[in-house]
Design brief:
By secondary structure, this protein is mostly helical. About 70% of the residues lie in helices and about 0% in strands.
C-alpha cells in the first residue's frame, strides 16, 4: 500500500481497485513465509540432530549448542504475585519476534486511510483494514496446523503437540487482533462518509462480518485458562 505514496496519484490507472488489492494480498505472502521459515529452521535442526554421528555429537561446539538450546527450551520464570509461570525463554523470544512482525506489517505502511476529496477517491476500503485482513487470513493455515495431535509440524520438527499448543493460542490471538483491526476502519470510514446505516441495511457483507468476528471472539476468549 505504501508504494502509492511514491507516485503521482493523478496518473493512477482507472482500474486502481485491481492494483490496490493486488498490493494488499502481498501482506499475506510474507506472513506465510515468516511462519514457514520458522518451521523450516526447527526442521533443519531436528534433521541435523537425527543424522548427527556420535563423534560429532560429542564435540565441544555441539555440546555447547545443545546446552544453550536446552536452556532456552526449559528456562521459565514464575511471578508469585500473579500465581503465574511464564513460557520458556525460547518461546517468549519467538513470541516477541512474531509480535514485532505483526505490529510492523500492520502499523508501519502508510497511509492508514485513503485521502478522499471531491476530486480524488480511492474507494471505500481503508488500506490498514485491507492489509490487516490479509494478515489475519494468513494465520489460518498455521492455526489449524498446530491444533491437531497428529500434525505435519510435529513430524518435521520433532516438537510435540503439547508444546505446539502455546503457538496455536498465540497465532490465534494474532489472527483475532488483526481481524479487529480489519473490522473497525470500515466502521470509522462509513461513519465519516455518513453511510454506515445504508451499508448495514443493504450489504450482507457487514452482517456476515459481524457474525464472524463474534464467533472468533468467543473462540479466542473461551480458550483463556480462567474461562476454560
Amino acid at each position: 500500500m505504501f508504494w502509492l505514496g511514491n507516485i503521482d496519484q493523478s496518473s493512477l490507472p482507472t482500474d486502481v481497485d485491481y492494483y490496490r488489492y493486488e498490493a494488499d494480498h502481498r501482506y499475506a505472502l510474507p506472513t506465510i513465509a515468516f511462519f514457514l521459515a520458522t518451521i523450516l529452521l526447527f526442521a533443519a535442526a531436528h534433521l541435523f540432530n537425527l543424522l548427527m554421528s556420535d563423534s560429532i555429537r560429542t564435540t565441544r561446539l555441539v555440546r555447547l549448542s545443545t546446552a544453550i538450546a536446552r536452556f532456552f527450551s526449559y528456562r521459565a520464570y514464575r511471578v508469585p504475585v500473579l500465581n503465574w509461570n511464564s513460557a520458556p525463554l525460547g518461546i517468549l523470544f519467538l513470541g516477541a519476534v512474531g509480535t514485532i512482525y505483526f505490529f510492523c506489517m500492520t502499523l508501519g505502511p502508510k497511509p492508514f486511510y485513503w485521502p478522499t476529496t471531491a476530486t480524488l477517491k480511492f474507494g471505500n476500503s481503508p488500506p490498514i483494514a485491507n492489509r490487516s485482513g490479509w494478515l489475519s487470513l494468513a494465520c489460518f493455515p498455521f492455526i489449524f496446523a498446530t491444533a491437531g495431535k497428529s500434525n505435519l509440524i510435529t513430524a518435521v520438527t520433532g516438537v510435540s503437540h503439547e508444546k505446539l499448543q502455546v503457538f496455536h493460542r498465540w497465532i490465534s490471538y494474532a489472527c483475532f487482533v488483526t481481524a479487529l483491526i480489519h473490522t473497525f476502519p470500515f466502521i470509522i470510514y462509513n461513519i465519516q462518509q455518513g453511510q454506515m446505516v445504508e451499508k448495514w441495511n443493504t450489504s450482507v457483507v457487514y452482517w456476515t462480518g459481524v457474525v464472524a468476528i463474534i464467533a472468533q471472539a468467543w473462540l479466542t476468549f473461551a480458550s483463556l485458562a480462567p474461562i476454560r
